[in-house]
Amino acid sequence: PFDNVKARQAVLHLVNQEAYLNVISPDPKYSSTVTSFFGDGNPVSNDENIGWYKKGGDPEKAKQLLKEAGYAGEKVVILQPTDWAEGSNTSQVLAAELRKIGVNAELAASDWGGLVARRSNKGPISEGGWSIFITSESNFSRGDPAVMPSLDASGEKGWYGWPNSDEYEALRAKWADVQTIEERKELARKMQQVAWDLAGTVFLGRVVGPIARRKTLTGLIGMPEFLPMWNMEKA
């Protein structure tokens, strides 16, 4: 049913990010909701077109959108990675949320390798196709749509799920040519307006991983993603 944009928007409105974060990372020090298509706290993160977000989700709005999409009980297959606990658990939460609003949701359990093999199938459910899969990615990398595959909306040539928007892609094509950060921020706002209407991706939240170190290890450089090693010293 997710070929229909209103069915995708239904999931966007349905998702209760706090519920997923409780499953993934119960300690609120290490988790937060996220509403910008470009991740949380990146230079181009913004609040354009985020009216869909509601604490606790909005199942009534989701039901309305599903009805408008003409949903008639078609099977929705969620690929469930059994060897990745966070992905497996959140898949189960999503299936339960969808069933509560009348969606015929089914979990297709496999290891991650099986999920990766199946997600390339563009066929119908009856021929091994699928509807939804859950993955994770770097928050920092979402700040650069020029290189991040999941910020692509070029249809058949793009990221799994194959979202397709000529309007979004025309904006994305300008990314490398803008001269200032202010121009890039403005471009990001325009892209986010289109992206959340398209609803090809739905966020479940953001988590960070705590680390521990010996007091004798010095020279760590604070960075949003990878930890550089060259500046470290051990006393």
Total count of domains: 1
Gap from first CA to last CA: 60 Å
Tell me about the largest β-sheet.
3 strands, parallel
Radius of gyration: 19 Å
DSSP strand tally: 7
Q: Determine the structural class based on helices, strands and strand pairing.
A: alpha/beta
Helices and strands, in order, run as HHEHEHEHEHHEEE
Q: Beta fraction of the residues?
A: 5-15%
Number of helices: 7
| CATH homology-level superfamily | Dipeptide-binding Protein, Domain 3
CATH secondary-structure class: Alpha Beta
Write up this protein.
This protein is of the alpha/beta class. It has a single domain, classed as Dipeptide-binding Protein, Domain 3 (Dipeptide-binding Protein, domain 3, Roll), CATH 3.10.105.10. 32% of the residues lie in helices and 10% in strands. The protein contains seven helices and seven strands. The chain has helices at 5-14, 17-24, 59-68, 85-100, 112-118, 166-172, 181-198, and strands at 31-32, 75-81, 104-110, 132-133, 206-207, 217-218, 233-234. The strands form three sheets. A three-stranded parallel beta sheet has the order 3-2-4. Strands 1-5 form a two-stranded antiparallel sheet. Helix 4 links the parallel strand 2 (75-81) and strand 3. Helix 2 (17-24) runs antiparallel to helix 4 (85-100) and helix 6 packs antiparallel against helix 7. The termini are far apart.
Q: Which helices and strands appear, and what pairs or packs with what?
A:
Elements (H helix, E strand, L loop, with lengths): L4 H10 L2 H8 L6 E2 L26 H10 L6 E7 L3 H16 L3 E7 L1 H7 L13 E2 L32 H7 L8 H18 L7 E2 L9 E2 L14 E2 L1
Parallel strand pairs: 2-3, 2-4
Antiparallel strand pairs: 1-5, 6-7
